[in-house]
């Protein structure tokens, strides 16, 4: 990020990370650049739903289904159904795990816009946040 910013003479940075591994890299670069920077978290994934039972699913459901299958509490078909519907779309892990925790911490540090760490990746709020980040960057560059 720093090399691209310097080599291309960018005036500001809007970083769009989506996981706990790349968020620290984004904010470290933002801190070192001495240029305006805003991080827009890519967003969390929405919960899935198991068609046969209507039960809410998430990534942990997929992990737990393996143990249930090994101990013969569910069939292979039920396990496949859980896995296929646990992560139904785009976004980082859906629980308050490291990606969402990191996004919350970065928001608290003021390196992302207020109220931005909890919007799902595919929501209207996330799209609005991206537009707001552009407007904020324009104001920062004035």
UniProtKB/TrEMBL annotation:
Any one GO molecular-function label of the UniProt entry: dihydroxy-acid dehydratase activity
Positions of the Dihydroxy-acid/6-phosphogluconate dehydratase N-terminal domain: 2-141
GO biological process: branched-chain amino acid biosynthetic process
Keywords from the named record: Lyase
Presence of the UniProt keyword Lyase in the record: yes
InterPro entries per the UniProt record, alphabetical: DHAD_IlvD/Edd, DiOHA_6PGluconate_deHydtase_CS, ILV_EDD_N, IlvD/EDD_N
Statement: the UniProt record of this protein carries the keyword Transmembrane helix: no
Family of the protein in this entry: Belongs to the IlvD/Edd family.
Protein name from the UniProt record: Dihydroxy-acid/6-phosphogluconate dehydratase N-terminal domain-containing protein
Organism, scientific name: Leptocylindrus danicus
